[in-house]
Sequence to fold (568 residues):
Amino acid sequence: MNGTLTIMRRELRSYFSTPLAYVFIVIFLVLSSWFTFNFGNFYNGGQASLAPFFGYHPWLYLFLIPALSMRLWAEEHKTGTIELLLTLPLEIWESVAGKFLAAWAFIAIAVILTFPIWITVNYLGAPDNGVIMAAYLGSLMMAGGFLAIGSFISATTNNQVIAFILAVVICFAFLLAGFQPLLSPLVGWVPQAIIDAIASLSFLTHFSDISKGVIDLRDIIYFALLIGTFLYANVLVLHMKKTS
Amino acid sequence: MFPRERVPQSVLTMINCQNLTKQYGPLIAVDNLSFQVCPGEVLGFLGPNGAGKTTTMRIIAGFLPPTAGSASVCGFDVENHATEAKRKIGYLPEGAPSYPEMTAQSFLEFIADSRELVGAHRDKRLKEVFNLLHLEPVLEQTIDTLSKGYRRRVGLAQAILHDPEVLILDEPTDGLDPNQKHEVRGLINEMAESKIIIISTHLLEEVDAVCNRVIIIDRGQILADDTPKNLEARSRFHNAVSIKFADSSQLESARTKIGLLPGVLNTEVNQNIDRLTAFPADGQMLLKTISELANAEGWDLSELSLESGRLDEVFRTITGGAAT
Fold:
């Protein structure tokens, strides 16, 4: 556990000692506001709600989180620091958890820095702040899901560009798993139960529930399981890489 | 392979490798290696590039699992009790990798935390290694701005920070200038008494300077396991006598006369530096007879020396590079 904290601290420090952190945060803030005000009908909607704001989060995450996660392990392999890391008296899972938590905390910082928009909507009207809280929570859970996938992919390759592209593609698949046009080719020959299972993996479905203010335990469990599964796979891949 | 006599030591204090084998697909990088290393030993791994030195060190350090066989450090198996074994080891990987965006200080603090150093002891050890490796001037610099020599020293600092019982250093002086090399060797010598130290190197003079045992490996196999002195004794130059004349025109006649001395096997002249070397027949000491001859003949010598043996020549002979 101490090992996890040590790794987490090192990683977080590293984010802020390179331009990466600032570039990421600025781009996230600019894009999320720009989408909200230009395409989200924030003013014209006539409702004091942050729904237009949160609606764009999955699409921002789709590109920004793989950009963050691609370096997590690929860079360690490329620069050889993986040899240092794996010969320290730490368990592999401690390193995996530490890196994941640092990146997650970093995204949380970026998300929390969007608070002016929350103040704005409260200034303009009387939104349901409970719903907004829930949406922030849902957004972070979803970010964790994207990140766990990205971290896993990063561990499988030494090439950051490949890690980025694969992570985007796989996250995209998870995002749209419940999207009807994608599922329609399956209808008729694949049992409905499997189609339902695929659809139930969709990030969008689970996120949209939470962002409407409905905190369903099943949605939380879904993201927690997803994160757990991919981090476990991450540990396995690192073990496998050692033995190959 | 020449077995050495060794005082029996407790398994709990040493490195024990049994039939270590590492295969990468069809390539056998380490082939059935067995050896023990005891405290007080500074073991030098010698071998051509790709001989399996780094792979062997990586296995002991717990970075790579062996394909077959086992290794233990202070009684802890490197696979089944990996974390305990890693606590005993300080490891400098090949190329001394470190995180380029961190400052030297924050990097070493990170290592201290990972090594579970706490409180006053942590601060004391950090200060000590900063001092020992002269890192004070660069502590606030990020590692990517450091010179190669400083980076290597940061890597060494990282390895010795927790005062480990076992030190595994893969080419510890690579990239250092002669003064820094000298200092690092001094440092290794200071630590040698109480620790087990394994270093790999290409530099034969380094073996002379720090190692009290040498293992020569090639194609994953141990070809020699001996003290540097004994290895030098295997050289044909061992106990050979070299002389140089102030006036090199005497060289040829002297060569004939020396060749006739009892105990001289043959003679050789290095034309480039006009140096004559007489090789002894088995176990004969030539220095006395040759110096007496020189006196009797009234030769004007600018150099007369007894050779202890040449490690580089032994190395080439053993690893099969002698033909070139």
Observations:
- Chain B has a mean pLDDT of 88.
